[in-house]
Write a structure and sequence with these properties.
Helix 6 packs antiparallel against helix 7. Strands 3, 4, 5, 6, 7 and 8 form a six-stranded mixed β-sheet that branches. This protein has a five-stranded mixed β-sheet with strand order 18-20-25-22-23, with no helix packed on it. A hairpin with a 4-residue loop joins strand 16 and strand 17 (720-729). The protein starts with 17 loop residues before the first strand and ends with a strand. It has 32 helices and 26 strands. Among the domains are: 22-57 and 733-842, Jelly Rolls (Sandwich), CATH 2.60.120.380; 399-643, Glutaredoxin (3-Layer(aba) Sandwich); 651-729, Immunoglobulin-like, CATH 2.60.40.
């Protein structure tokens, strides 16, 4: 019997997925009312037949994550690209936020010796009185004494588990979770240290099976609660650890079939569902009995496919990983055996067909296709995924240009914009070589051709780039290359920002990432591991920032703000690594340290680069490390001169302060002009689809949240400068709408207390007068999940809408520009029961 679990799962972790999403579609034309109508006539009350989502099209999510570029990286194995995206279970704890039954546990010693000294009922009592974190620690500490998991002890714990399972009450008041976790740890230790732990026989398998059977024979394991979810996820994990996947196919199927959006208010129930997807269905392919059972009874694989398709709405919210995991598992199971392939491959095809690329469901397609490509590639023609990366590139990045040794692949750049990017990269070469003073490419550094993947926005970058280029996506761009391998082409991946006029064609971090590529060809011998073997992050990231800002003729306003604080000494920055530096120490302070060294001590820079180019990284590090603190005082003085104007680019530099009062943000513009000319224009982008050309405006947001405020200043010669900052707003206070009908909205008013039960729809409408330029509809407050829909022509519903916001929860927002006069229709669809929701309309 194969017994295993996964050590990497022992670390606590939560995947951050998605924030509130909005989709903005053009409003459809609608005839104005006849002139004889002097007052708007309310629309009729909608009938029940208008409700009900069929193939719900949720908007593409806007993911969270850093806007900073990521560290350069080596290419990743295709086998890991999908697997690393699977959700890991968060750890239980007996501290703040833990359930009351855990907090009540007595604090007691938790060492291997404490368990080794106990057997039978004494051991069981000790485990039940320990915290879950104590038992979890045994995965690590028990390596010192694997005998604490010998079969006799495991049998005692399994028997106690069965006794408690017979009267399981849906929570951990009895300490059942600790017993389950102990059994999990035992299987792991015995698999890795079989001699020390001793053999496990069929007697133990029978005892554990009997305990699990007893639990699943009851009803409380199906409770949809936080307490049950916390235990159910561990029980499911145990079925996988004990290699009993084939026996509990029915339980897995029931968990998948019974899931609905009511679970979303219970994070531990989400973890329990994901435990099925993560453990037995992801790893069960190693169990031949499980594979045979899947082929003999197609119920589970049908449930898995149905889950993936039915719950595609999850892709627009924080629980998207459930849906993508379902696609992952199904595609992987298709490759486990010819018999499993026969019953599973039509379902894989069905899932792929349900999730077109560049649709709100594109994420599901990607994960399913990537796993099918890896595990079931002999069916690639049937699935339509042969040479998947080429297919993805042709669909998602169709606009291409060969720019010398650079291949530009873009999602939405026009021919003129591609030419602009090409020219920027060509001219950056000259600047880089002037700064680096190199003697040409380092011998045996390959990657002489580089591919640029340029996405239209961050959402599409996050959704698609990893599947094409193998990069990490929780960043503002990344360069992936191994210059020592002649068979690996360098790639650098990034995306556009609408407000970002300072970068060529609005491509965020274009010149920063290209500098990484050049640095690896001309300055840094070896591959990524070698290049990062010493503390040289100040140079790698600082040079990329310096060249980027210098090439674009822009001021690094973040660096100027940091310079005024004098936070770091130069000798401290010289010790920067990817482990000890946050984004502030990495980027603005990296820029400052590189600029200072290039301006004040270029000979030291060249001495360092001579060693790096030879592959002598300790020698290069010694050049600046041996300086000690000798430059610290001068660097400190240089920072003052930098802030005083010495580091400002010629032309306008956009500067401003923000003040947030609830939902209103006020800005104080304080931009500066360096050199001749004067600033004559100010353009604000508030990050919610609204703009202003006032010098110091204020703006009120319809939905609380995190927004990017960007200012572009223009001088009388046409030069521009751009800066941005993030602001967080709180709830907007609008008066209650006064129309007699409670489903009628109006200008700048709110309807509180909206509610509907799951599967039903709350309908509203609004009359827009002539001359309306922007309609913003928002929802906030209350509980549950309510999707927001808009339709210009008829009652809005999940089947009839022209704009939608379908994030998890009740915070939604839609902005419609240039609507024509007349009635417009709104609805709140209850993905789960919702109540206490406030709807606002602003125009």
């Amino acid at each position: 019997m194969l017994l295993r679990t996964r050590l990497s799962m022992l670390a606590a972790g939560v995947v951050a997925c998605c924030a509130t999403a909005t989709a903005v579609l053009p409003a459809q034309a609608f005839a104005a009312p006849p002139a004889a109508i002097t007052a708007p006539t309310p629309p009729p009350t909608p009938t029940a037949s208008a409700a009900g989502p069929v193939g719900l099209t949720a908007p593409t999510p806007t993911p969270t994550g850093s806007e900073e570029p990521a560290e350069p990286a080596a290419p990743r194995s295709p086998a890991l690209i999908g697997a690393t995206r699977l959700l890991e279970e968060p750890a239980d704890a007996a501290g703040a936020g833990a359930p009351a039954q855990f907090k009540s546990l007595a604090v007691q010693s938790c060492t291997p010796a404490d368990f080794a000294s106990r057997t039978g009922a004494d051991l069981v009592a000790f485990i039940r009185s320990s915290t879950p974190d104590c038992i979890k620690s045994l995965y690590q500490s028990a390596v010192a004494d694997p005998s604490i998991f010998n079969q006799a002890r495991m049998l005692s714990v399994a028997a106690a588990f069965k006794d408690l399972a017979a009267n399981y009450s849906g929570d951990n008041t009895t300490g059942i979770a600790q017993l389950v976790k102990y059994l999990q740890a035992g299987y792991y230790i015995q698999f890795n240290y079989p001699t020390q732990a001793g053999a496990y026989t069929d007697e133990l398998a029978t005892a554990v099976t009997s305990a699990l059977d007893t639990l699943f024979a009851g009803a409380r394991w199906r409770d949809v609660t936080e307490d049950n979810g916390r235990i159910l996820k561990e029980v499911v994990w145990l079925t996988d650890s004990a290699n009993l996947q084939a026996r509990y196919i029915g339980a897995y199927k029931r968990i998948l079939d019974e899931y609905d959006n009511t679970y979303n208010q219970f994070p531990q129930m989400i973890n329990a569902v994901n435990s099925v997807l993560y453990y037995p269905l992801w790893f069960g392919y190693r169990n031949t009995d499980f594979v045979k059972a899947l082929a003999a009874d197609t119920g589970l694989v049908n449930s898995l496919a149905d889950f993936a398709i039915k719950h595609r709405d999850l892709l627009s919210g924080p629980h998207a990983v459930l849906d993508t995991n379902a696609g992952n598992d199904l595609a992987r199971l298709a490759g486990t055996s010819p018999a499993a392939e026969a019953v599973t491959k039509p379902l894989v095809k069905k899932v792929l067909d349900s999730a077109p690329l560049l649709s709100p469901f594109g994420t599901l397609y990607l994960y399913t296709a990537r796993q099918a490509e890896y595990w079931n590639n002999n069916q690639c023609s049937y699935y339509g995924i042969c040479d998947l990366r080429t297919k993805l590139t042709s669909v998602i990045l169709p606009n291409q240009l060969v720019c010398d040794n650079r291949i530009l692949q873009a999602q939405s750049l026009s021919a003129a914009e591609l030419a602009t990017v090409c020219e920027s990269l060509r001219s950056e070469d000259a600047l880089f070589h002037r700064v680096a003073k190199d003697n040409g490419p380092i011998p045996n550094q390959y990657a002489k051709t580089v591919t640029f993947g340029i996405f239209a926005n961050k959402a599409d970058y996050t959704t698609y780039s990893w599947a094409i280029f193998g990069n990490d996506t929780d960043n503002g761009g990344q360069t992936v290359m191994d210059a020592t391998d002649p068979n690996v082409r360098a790639v650098t991946v990034m995306y556009q920002k609408a407000w970002n006029v300072n970068d060529p064609a609005r491509v965020w971090n274009l010149n920063h990432e290209y500098t990484h590529y050049l640095d690896s060809v001309y300055n840094l011998k070896g591959n990524y591991t070698t290049q990062s073997s010493v503390p040289n992050k100040w140079w790698v990231e600082g040079l990329a920032e310096y060249v980027s800002y210098t090439h674009r003729g822009a001021t690094d306003t973040d660096a100027m703000a940091q310079a005024a604080k004098h936070t770091y000494k130069l000798s401290t920055l010289f010790q920067n690594t990817y482990a000890n530096s946050d984004s502030t120490r990495t980027y603005p302070w990296g820029y400052l340290s590189v600029r200072y060294m290039l301006e004040k001590h270029p000979a030291d820079v060249q001495a360092m680069l001579e060693r790096f180019r030879a592959g002598d990284y300790p020698g290069g590090y010694a050049v600046y490390n041996n300086l000690g603190t000798s430059y610290d005082a001068d660097f400190d003085a240089w920072l003052d001169a930098c802030v005083a104007g010495g580091c400002y680019a010629t032309g306008p530099t956009s500067l401003f302060d923000t003040t947030v009062n609830g939902a209103t943000v006020s800005v104080n513009e304080r931009s500066v002009q360096t050199g001749s000319g004067r600033i004559t224009g100010w353009h604000w982008n508030f990050g919610d689809g609204t703009f202003s050309d006032e010098r110091s405006p204020s703006h009120t947001y319809g939905v609380p949240g995190l927004y990017t405020v960007a200012l572009t200043t223009t001088d009388d010669t046409g030069r521009t400068g751009t800066a941005s900052t993030a602001v967080t707003t709180t709830a907007l206070s609008l008066p209650t709408c006064t129309e007699q009908r409670t489903d009628a909205m109006a200008r700048d008013c709110a309807r509180p207390g909206r509610a509907a039960t799951a599967g039903n729809t709350d309908y509203l409408y609004v009359y827009l007068p002539a001359g309306t330029t922007t309609l913003k509809v928002s929802t906030l407050g209350g509980t549950g999940t309510a999707y927001l829909y808009y339709n210009a022509d008829t009652w809005a519903s999940p089947k009839a809408y022209t704009a939608a916001s379908a994030a998890d929860g009740t915070t939604q927002s839609i902005t419609v520009t240039n609507p024509t006069a007349g009635y417009r229709y709104l609805s709140l669809y209850a993905a789960t029961d919702f109540s206490g929701v406030t709807v606002t309309t602003q125009f």
